[in-house]
């Protein structure tokens, strides 16, 4: 199943996902470069809700651009298999080796605003990430490492402590709380 079909078949969890799914599909019908950063208005990214086996903790990185503890993820960069993008980014950003998709299906979707910032000494204008999130299980005993050009910390966070760790109110309220709700209903 191709990316567009996966999104078309995705059952939205709430009003936010319903609207974001609609916009993602319109965007895919309008632009032909949605998988690369060449589309400076918006492009696809993949994130992981990387939980331990007991599903009591999530693996977070301290993201240098956002100056916040947050999930792992990154740009599709031309890859249409966004599950593999999420796994690749999780490995790169945290150093974990033992990753198992709980499901191959999209776990969540959201459109996230990215404010203008400097990356590798170049200005990147404000844009949106058309983000797909995947539920991944990670061995909590894996050695964690930092990807210094993107993050300055990696740690396990108890699900109930996410709001204390992240400094992004919208992400906490609209994304992380939703992911935790879905995780409880998923078990």
Description:
This protein has about 190 residues and is of the alpha+beta class. It is built from 5 helices and 10 strands, in the order ααββββαββββββαα. β7 and β8 form a beta hairpin. The radius of gyration is 15 Å and the shape is globular.
Helix-strand blueprint:
Elements: H1 3-9, H2 15-30, E1 42-51, E2 57-63, E3 68-70, E4 72-75, H3 82-94, E5 99-101, E6 108-114, E7 117-119, E8 122-124, E9 127-138, E10 151-158, H4 162-165, H5 169-186
Parallel strand pairs: 1-9
Antiparallel strand pairs: 1-4, 2-3, 2-10, 5-9, 6-9, 7-8
Question: SSE order in H/E notation?
Answer: HHEEEEHEEEEEEHH
Q: Total helix count? A: 5
* pLDDT averaged residue by residue: 94
Number of strands: 10
Shape: globular
Q: Note the quaternary state here.
A: single chain
Structural class: alpha+beta
**From the alpha-carbon coordinates, what is the Rg to the nearest angstrom?**
15 Å
- Spatial separation of the terminal alpha carbons: 25 Å
| Unreliable stretches | none
Helix content: 25-40%
- Determine the strand fraction and express it as a percent band: 25-35%
Tell me the major beta sheet.
5 strands, mixed
In short:
The chain has helices at residues 3-9, 15-30, 82-94, 162-165, 169-186, and strands spanning 42-51, 57-63, 68-70, 72-75, 99-101, 108-114, 117-119, 122-124, 127-138, 151-158.
């Amino acid at each position: 199943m191709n990316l567009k079909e996966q999104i078309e078949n995705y059952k939205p969890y709430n009003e936010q996902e319903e609207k974001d799914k609609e916009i993602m599909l319109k965007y895919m019908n309008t632009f032909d470069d949605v998988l690369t950063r060449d589309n400076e208005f918006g492009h696809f990214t993949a994130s992981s809700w990387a939980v331990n086996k007991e599903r009591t903790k999530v693996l977070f990185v301290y993201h240098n651009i956002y100056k916040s503890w947050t999930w792992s993820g990154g740009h599709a960069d031309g890859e249409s298999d966004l599950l593999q993008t999420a796994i690749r980014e999780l490995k790169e950003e945290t150093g974990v080796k033992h990753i198992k998709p709980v499901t191959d299906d999209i776990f969540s979707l959201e459109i996230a605003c990215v404010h203008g910032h400097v990356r590798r000494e170049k200005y990147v204008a404000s844009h949106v990430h058309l983000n797909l999130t995947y539920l991944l299980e990670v061995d909590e005993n894996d050695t964690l490492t930092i990807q210094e050009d993107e993050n300055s910390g990696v740690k396990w966070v108890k699900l109930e402590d996410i709001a204390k760790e992240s400094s992004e109110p919208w992400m906490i309220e609209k994304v992380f709380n939703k992911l935790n709700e879905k995780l409880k209903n998923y078990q």
